[in-house]
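Our preliminary data section would be incomplete without showing what the modeling component actually yields. Below, a chain of 252 amino acids is followed by its predicted structure, encoded as tokens that our downstream tools consume directly.
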Amino acid sequence: MSEVRHQPKAVTVVRPLAAGQGVDAHRHDEHQIIYAGRGVLAVTTDAGTWIAPGNRALWVPAGTTHSHRAHGDLDLHTLGLPRSVNPLGLQAPTALTVGPLLRELILAYTRDVAASAGAGAGPERLRMRAVLLDQLRASPQQPMHLPTPTDPRLAAVCALLHHDPADDRPLAGFGARVGAGERTLSRLFRSELGMTFPQWRTQLRLYHAVVLLSEGHPVTTVARRCGWSSTSAFIDVFRRAFGHTPGVHLRR
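Predicted structure:
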């Protein structure tokens, strides 16, 4: 990422972002929890992109260069934590499950801090923060990460699928397009991206599905544009990944 801004303190804020709006590459000396109270948030680092709908929050460790992008109109809630406060001991960006209680704690805490305009923390806010951190410690990690490839042949395959996630040709077909053998590409998917080609393609399709739903596209349209053989198949995969159906996500 170029022109990285250094912001020493990860300030706790509530900020609206219009669809397509973003925050350029920057880094903090503190950890940051990033949550979309409304809309869908994508956070990108040199290691890849993480996506967070309403039941996910993103943990960004101190010193990590990252940028934000809003899909759909977004209410951005960010919470800064000192380096010494790392509830899960995480050293890399991670998506975390956000249940109803944790969601309300993040919303209430960030709004309270934003409304106080920098005033000192009273006992009620300190108690709320302590409960919030307890809930974070109990939050399961979720694999909502699209790693960035470095091998040019692998990057070319990934770019083709980003352009058209419904492209259902086998890996050998993509290999013929980019000048690499199927075995070579299969090995690269495992070694560079940590998953098989089918696993990565499913993650990519889920990423695009969340973005399209946040833009208001009907479920059947999203299923077709993202390459699922049927709407029911899409609904099943989406429910297993996010814990609710695309229809519920669309209504949210």
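Residues 206 and 237 are 8 Å apart (CA to CA). The first strand starts at residue 5 and ends at 7. Preliminary results of this kind motivate Aim 1 of the renewal.
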